[in-house]
UniProtKB/TrEMBL annotation:
Native species: Gadus morhua (Atlantic cod)
Domain Ionotropic glutamate receptor C-terminal: 25-375
Gene name of the record: si:ch211-251b21.1
Keywords: Cell membrane, Disulfide bond, Glycoprotein, Ion channel, Ion transport, Ligand-gated ion channel, Membrane, Postsynaptic cell membrane, Receptor, Signal, Synapse, Transmembrane, Transmembrane helix, Transport
Descriptive protein name: Glutamate receptor
Membrane topology of this protein: Multi-pass membrane protein
Residues in Ionotropic glutamate receptor L-glutamate and glycine-binding domain copies: 35-91
Amino acid sequence: MEGYLAVCLCVTALISAPHTTSAKELSITTIKGDPYTMSRGTELEGYCIDLISKLSQKLGFTYKVNLVKDQRYGALDASGSWSGMIGEVMRGEADLAVAPLTVTATREQAVDMTTPFMQTGLSFLLRKDMAHEELNLGFLSPFSMEMWIGVLVAFLLTGICVFLVARISPREWEPESEGQSFTLVHSFWYITGALTLQGAGPHPKSVSGRLVSAVWWVFAVLLLVFYFANFSHMQHADNKHVSIKNFEDLSHQDVIEYGTVEGGSSMSFFKNSNNPVFRRIYQHMERGNTYVATMEEGITRAQEGNFAFIGEAVSLDLAAGRYCTLTRSEELVAMRAYAIAAPVDSPLVKNLTVAILQLSEGGELTYLRDKWWPNNCREGQDAHSANALGLQNLLGLFLLLGLGLALGLLVALLELLSKARSLAKDGKKSCCSALSTELAQRFRGGAESADQEIADKSKA
């Protein structure tokens, strides 16, 4: 009876105890790949490293992570041997393989795999201006929004500067005349004429006015040159523009090339598919040999334009989040999943599967996805922004205009100061008094100041 009670107590303790994988330290193999496993000094970090840490906390095991020796995921060669992480698990060199390992029928026969920790599918990555038609405002497209705002500010400042120079310079402003040529309205009309390359008289007579006018004309001519050059370039590019939203659109056009990683699972899918669209895509890649050696090369070619890179959606999402000129197609085909691999009949698989489901239900897998797949791009970024000229492209032109306006105002002030000194010498009063009188005539009741000055001269 005592023996029976002891056995019952032991069974009860085993049931109530937390599920642990093994008392020994587990050897885990993985492969470098952004953002799953990356080097940070002598340490490793990434989605898979965080996933291993969370699983160890739930199941209470210790572990050591090693990079796979041949830097391969695992494939069956002609001799029937497995390479990569699958091979290391089968040979007992590793207890687990934690990486973006795609669950396939062939791999399931060689190893045991847990429930997937990530779902994905095949899609393609290309430049935004090739993905879909954007609202194009035609004549506004050569310049970015920031550039148009800069042009508007430059126009307003130049008009005001022309008006101020015409008021300050003694050669432009004559108190005895009934109306002045360069009113505020005429100043803006004058610089508008320069933008149309027609001109609008009368023209400035003073050195300062001619200086401001010349700088604005140079600015206007160069601005129009850049505008029409970029407009012509964008119209020429639009003639070759196609709208590509899915794989069928991709297969029915010959404007841009497309390809995938040579020898990868994506290539195998298209090769073995009986779907006419996918067969046509495979035949095009074979005929043009448009494969790339690595995913990084495919992303680089997509950034350069005229190329669509086909790959797994989770990896393409990472690239689209980092490079704002790229976008991923919304269509997903050949749905697949990533899972952890363990030796056949391993007692680890059941506990790992339960732990992965718990992490998924608790939202921790979603947290890891958001952590390692950041999106640095602004929402609603214009697809034409890569081709439109911005302020940074024509910054020198705006600096030239600013320098010219400042120099024109300075020369106008020097002209007025010279006249004030002459008046002060003739009227035997201070230069500051003469200067203030001249400014008052121009900006504070010019007529009243002029009458006062005439009265003062009569008394003298």
